[in-house]
Amino acid sequence: MPLPICVVTDSSVQFAHPSFPGRGLVHIVPIEILFQGNKFQGSEELKISSLPISPRPDAFPRLETPSEEVFRQVFSDLGQSYRQIIGIFMSEQLSPVFKSAEKAANDLRGRVNIELIDSQSISTGLGALVEAAAEAAEQGISPSLIEKNVRDLTSRIYSVVCTPGLSYLHHNGFVDLGQARIADMLGLYPIFSIEEGFLTPIEKGRSQRYIYEFFQEFIDEFEQLQHIALLQNVPQNNNDIQMLREHVQECYPQTLFTTHTLNLPIAALFGPKTFGLFVVEAVEKKTRL
Fold first, then answer.
1. In a domain, 185, yes or no
2. Radius of gyration of the chain (CA)
3. In a domain, 57, yes or no
4. Same domain, yes or no: 169 and 262
5. Residue pair 243/212 in contact by the 8 Å Cβ criterion
6. Would you call 106 exposed, middle or buried from its count of C-beta atoms within 10 A (0-12, 13-18, 19+)?
7. Nearest Cα to 135, choosing from 225, 15, 230?
8. What per-residue string of b and e applies to 53-76 under the rule 16 or more CB within 10 Å gives b?
9. Distance CA 173, CA 124 (A)
10. Claim to verify: residue 94 and residue 231 sit in the same structural domain
């Protein structure tokens, strides 16, 4: 007899916990990176430090979206083992992954039960949704209620990312060439928010210290937080991070604070020097200051 529910996501996902309730129900579809004529599936195969800061126009790493056929095969195989598939993928506004999965799901409609959710996020924001869905699936919660709860959770996830240098964002179609050149020339640290899946410029700084101060101010806009996740471009424990950690411990002592190293799909999309902050607002308080 098929098992009730599984969760499918893509390899841009990052989890707060290495092992979480329902982890065995999660299936990850890899996003390949095409770089220098070779394809890579993760940081184990291609180190983030190997990516150029400002590549030549013909030398950018490129995300290879899993094809409709790949998703059809994944969904068909899982449909033999599970009665319901819930697919949660990185923001449709940042990558074609969701559209590719959607077309495959439409082809299989009537044969496999699939519900797709646009996370409107990336990285640990996506991970928070997948973890919530998987835990609920393991508890035997109905697919319709899982879908509702996950969609509700998307409205409580807030993200800001900093991309020193904009060449990757220009290459991937998010900013124009003039913006990228000016930012590079002035050595700016542009900050973007991810709102309803869209990348929106909100601030510019001239140092990493300023960015971490901005992160602290961003956190302080909330009364109660469930999770704060810091995305770093390299594993580090510098004074800026320690300052942020101590602030969280003092002001949000009950809030989970995790740090994560940039993964390969996010590095190829935004650049290898990207770092960011993801927060999940506690369900008790939904009012943003």
1. yes
2. 19
3. no
4. yes
5. yes
6. exposed
7. 15
8. eebeeeebbebbbbebebbbebbe
9. 23
10. no
Residue 285 has a pLDDT of: 44
Same domain, 133 and 216: no
Which are the contacts of 167, defined by CB distance < 8 A and separation ≥ 6? 53, 54, 55, 60, 180, 184, 271
Instruction: Inform me whether the pLDDT recorded for 108 exceeds 50.
Output: yes
Between residues 188 and 56, the one the model is more confident about: 188
**Domain residues for 269?**
157-281
**How many domains does the chain fold into?**
2
In this prediction the pTM is: 0.92
| Residue 190's CATH number | 3.30.1180.10
pLDDT score of 1 more than 70: no
State residue 284's pLDDT score.
64
Q: pLDDT at position 11, please?
A: 96
Identify the bridge partners of residue 158 per DSSP, sorted by sequence position.
279
Q: Is residue 56 assigned to a domain?
A: no
Mean pLDDT of 269-284: 91
